[in-house]
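Case study.
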Amino acid sequence: MKGKSAAVSFIDQLECPRTELLFQESKPLYNEDQAVSEASRCLFCYDAPCMQACPTHINVPLFIRQIMTKNVKGSAKTILSSNIMGLSCAHICPVEVLCEGACVMNHEGKEAIHIGRLQRYSVQWAYDKQMQFFTKGKSTGKKVAVIGSGPAGLSCAAELVQLGHDVVVYESREIPGGLDSAAVAPYKLFSEDALKEISFIQKIGVEIKTGVSIGKDLSISELEQKHDLIFIGIGLGRDSDLGIPGEDLSGCAGAVEWIETIKRTNAFDPGTVRNAVVIGGGNTALDAARELKKLMVPKVTLIYRRTESEMSGYKHEKDRAAQEGIEFLFQTIPLEILGHNGKVDGMKLVKIKSENGKLTPVSGSEFSVSCDFVVKAAGQEKLSELFSEVKNLTVKNGLIQVNPETLQTGSPKYFAAGDCVSGGEEVVYAVADGKKAAKAMHELLMKEK
Amino acid sequence: MADISINFAGIKSPNPFWLASGPLTNTAYQVMEAFDLGWGGAVWKTVGIPIVNVYSRYGGLNYHGSRLVGLNNNELITDRSFEENYKEIYQVKKKYPKNALLVSLMFETKQEWKEHVKRAIDSGADGLELNFGCPHGMCERGMGSVVGQEPKVLKEVTGWVMEYSTVPVLVKLTPNISDIRDPGKAAQEVGAHGVSLINTIKSIMEIDLDTFSPVPSVDGKGTNGGYCGPAVKPIALHMVGSLSRMPGWKTLISGIGGVQTWRDAVEFILLGATSVQVCTAAMHYGFRIVEELNQGLSDYMDQKGFKSIEEFRGKAVKNFVEWGNLNLNYRVKAEINPKKCIECQLCVAACDAGGHQCIHTQENGSRVPYVDQEACIGCNLCSLVCPVEECITMKEIDLGKPYLTWKEYQKTAV
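After joint prediction, the assembly is written out as follows.
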């Protein structure tokens, strides 16, 4: 059987140089003075709204108070006890709509406490000092397989290991982390930091086997034989196609695939792109557009089929994109990607109108724009057919169906969480659900004695 | 515009703001700069037999992002020669005849006092301040606060000065005693023209958690220092008020302790102080703060219609009473303005822990708490912890009953 040993440092496997290193962090690390001063602003609310707003319910007032009193180690432990991916989440959480959005300071017209930056200060401080807070629990002899090393899988694995179970995480790719290490905008989180966090999860006792594809390298029946329970956290698949002519031209890429290219390799040459178009209205589309702009692409246009207010991307991200000079074309869809010598050189578009929620092209409104690079951010394919042979495991619209309380699937041996269940949500929700599943799995494992 | 000048037992000053004796008044350079910027007066750093100081002299108390909420120091009196001091005092007084220049003195023997009272006055001192307050270092040598702690000794030494001095004499009092009225009475009985209070409070600022040394650390060891700054103002106000309301009290007061702004200064004046001495605030921000002090005081007086400081000096003294004279029939209850509430629920936590458990969260899911009016005892805690001005106010409830003191209540109870 394939599979690299857990002792391997995945950080060493990152290609260098790689495009992501051209980016600057949008929220640089606080120094001690900045952190203490920011922490001092916190009111230490009772039944704090920030803590309620966090899907992992980190005790925010406590960890901020610990930073204020210079017990940074204690603050990191507070954070990581609730959220084992506290470093990633500090970098990438949409705090504007979660903890910081709930901060009572907003009600007084004051700036919300910068909870995300304080959290990053704390966890990074601890990790830079190689602090390890958690260890494997007393062995129960139970074996669990976690499929997929994204946030849901790692969160589930970390929890189960602390409860004393033997956990192996199977990852089909060579580098673990899922979208967290491969597809987060580099100005929010670098691959290396995501992998650094994973190395601390490995040190708890989570074994990660990369390069193992379930169904190919390890059959479902083998998997079931070897493990008492199985957690599925496989996320989503490749970028969805638009289903229009020209998608195979050179210079047309899927958003997740392209972001991974710039995060992991040096293969993308931004100097060759003068005029890029991003198709989509979600956060991935906004990320891709902002990344292109930050890579000094002169003209970046985001094209979305509905109106501005219907965009699923966060308003704060959209506003930043607009400030950075990204142009928007709303109520427009691409009809064809035009090419020359096998390379993208334009796009044929049509305006769209909405009638009773139904989108229809406006006849005669076709027009063309020139562009030399196209990023498709119209969602991702579903991967769940992998488990079609598992009896009673229900998949609906490509998403695995679970009991919302326990995250158990129709097949009692299988639990699932993350994007393969939700269809695509923030990392912090995957972390919360991975942990929630772990608790239910633990209960079941201990009952089975 | 209001007249903010004062006359302190014959010492005239263009405004009530004097730099307190200390590091700020060590040299002619400093005092002249201060006078140029608008300080009314200065009390020269204590002249005595020159001492040697240690290195690392100050410790600061920071709180919630605010620096120097409190300050402590272990610096002693002047380390300069008599000649240097008296020469510079002369230069300052000559250049600034309209500003008040007092000289702080600290000696041991009657002979020394006699000599230096004369030398200070000959140098141009408008008044003398006797340092019976310094709580560190000098007290170990039988001077400073040990004199202020013994009314008999205070009286005797002050008596010597009164005998030789031709200018007003102020006795600087230490707060490191059980009742400020004892040294206050002693100073009045011996005929001092004024008292200055409070001097600094004995304190240990901080213990270093790694070296286990008190801070400021002098080669791994620390001593008690003198505590001052905004944090001591309430203690100082109480002591000033205690003297002012004492029957038969007529000695002038120079108020000291945590004055940072004109508002603080007005509080001291309302409790009876004629001049106000400042140290920490100018140590922190420089002499330029006097501009705000002068302007603020003047604007306040204009707003209130006070033409002179004497018009409002001591106005709060009659309201500073013993507990037994408070009105038992007065009621206030907390009221939360939901429009201002930012939903932090600090009032809920505080009332639950330290109040009477009468602020509750609503069952309808709103985070705006409400006050159980029946249970509220009007303690104020909620309004103090609330981070929003005027969000929680204490509303008066008229019981329709007359003023009833504890003393009267006891009679009716019997």
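Observations recorded in class. The radius of gyration of chain A is 23 Å. Chain A has three domains: 27-128, 143-235+383-447, 241-380. We will return to this complex in the next lecture.
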